[in-house]
Amino acid sequence: xxxxxxxxxxxxxxxxxxxxxxxxxxxxxxxxxxxxxxxxxxxxxxxxxxxxxxxxxxxxxxxxxxxxxxxxxxxxxxxxxxxxxxxxxxxxxxxxxxxxxxxxxxxxxxxxxxxxxxxxxxxxxxxxxxxxxxxxxxxxxxxxxxxxxxxxxxxxxxxxxxxxxxxxxxxxxxxxxxxxxxxxxxxxxxxxxxxxxxxxxxxxxxxxxxxxxxxxxxxxxxxxxxxxxxxxxxxxxxxxxxxxxxxxxxxxxxxxxxxxxxxxxxxxxxxxxxxx
Length: 276
Prior knowledge:
By secondary structure, the protein is of the alpha+beta class. The chain has helices at about 5-10, 15-30, 35-45, 50, 90-95, 105-115, 125-130, 150-175, 190-205, 230-275, and strands at about 55, 60-65, 65-70, 75-80, 100, 120-125, 140-150, 210. Helix 1 packs antiparallel against helix 8 and helix 8 (about 150-175) packs antiparallel against helix 9.
């Protein structure tokens, strides 16, 4: 695999990114860059949040919003209702408005191809829904919930990977003019140089997370999850804060009222003393 061949494939929109990534993997092996190879394999096979959350790329984090179906009294139902984040526990507010896209590039290409209505669903975990089902709308229970992801945002992820790989290829060609030969440089200095170019072009300075109405049948993975325990704990903390605020407010009103009462008594005594 020569860099010139990879560059031409990246420029050609007809060549799927998934096919290009296999060529990139060959190049990463030959360049002997561990970081480059690790990123390539994750883009091919997909990210696992529990394993990769410390190195999750920011270009795979997208803004979204959540919808849900609700049931009320006497069998009433409300579908595709927006889920406001104001009443949610703090741990869920970010989850409801952001989605961490973990699918590999081939899976993303397939989702984009199959999506006909322009949007996809990312279902909420069932345990999370059960933990907060009665805390979203008064007198209504959440039956199911999902995040709505725009198809164009998935296309943007694929385009970002392609463009950054092209940038990486051009920079490596510039740094190693003879890299098109069969014997690629794999000495320590060259490997470090390629790794630095990779980090700058693919991740940049701040592109890694450091701890990272729906369509018919198109469904995304849930991305990073959230435990029921953390939701309930956050809800309890919130309730405790509210109680503390109520107590503080009552105490403040009592002190204020007592101060006004004593002030009034004192003012009356002064007036009586001076015969006002």
